[in-house]
Amino acid sequence: MSYGKWLGASLGWSFGGPIGAIIGLALGSVVDAMSSGKGNPLLGERQTRQSTRQQPYRGSQSRTQQQRRTETTSGDFEVSLLILASVVIKADGVQDKRELDFVRQQFVSMYGKDRANKAFKLFKKVNNQIVPLRQVCKQIQQMMDHASRLQLMHFLFGIAKADGMVTDDEERQIYTISGYLGISSRDYNSIKAMFYNSRDNAYKILEIEQSATVDDIKKAYRKMAKKYHPDKVEHLGEEHKKGAEDKFKQVQKAYEQLQKERGF
Fold first, then answer.
1. Does the predicted model carry a pTM greater than 0.85?
2. 226: which of 37, 105, 149, 186 is 20 to 30 A away, CA to CA?
3. Which residue segments constitute the domains of the chain, with CATH numbers given?
4. What is the rounded distance in angstroms from the CA atom of residue 216 to the CA atom of residue 230?
């Protein structure tokens, strides 16, 4: 039995719940590699939720509470994203290179090339593990607000669509994740509609029925624009605003489409 791996997992469960166990096991494998002379640990693989909080600050040593909170929350989101992405990619039994490339590209766009490469190396280790999905999602639900969880859902659909289509297996897996995360069916269908083409997608994105009146549409637009406004995930840091902007643009596009169809 590999001592380093299971020590890492045990420490993870003690200090970070199921997510800590997964990351601890991944980091433990690095310890094993060192002890067997296979190489040195990668700096990026130490970017767990706890170590992210402990990284030295370059510049003024005084840090505001908001800065610390943003750093911690961004670390929570990054680790949660890594784990759930690995679940979705394996949902259909085929790990398509386009999906893996999408994950890497998203990391690069959010974190920059250097940090993204390190995060992706950790992702590949997490990807080799069996994830206790329900427990992981419940932990994410407890530590992450609603807007951040919606952002995770948007990212997961993006992964599934990276190879050109969302398979039934992938859709079922994301639906399961949404339930465990406490995402309502309306919110789930709204985000899902952003990745499909159908005549009623605009209505689904705005979370209304096709029988909605013009006043209903306007009211729904104001509500959804507020829900998906990029400022809602400002606490995650600038790197996560792009994904929020994509959702916001989809809401605007849906509203403009109904304006054209309904003539108002």
1. no
2. 105
3. 1-53+68-183 (no CATH), 184-264 (1.10.287)
4. 23
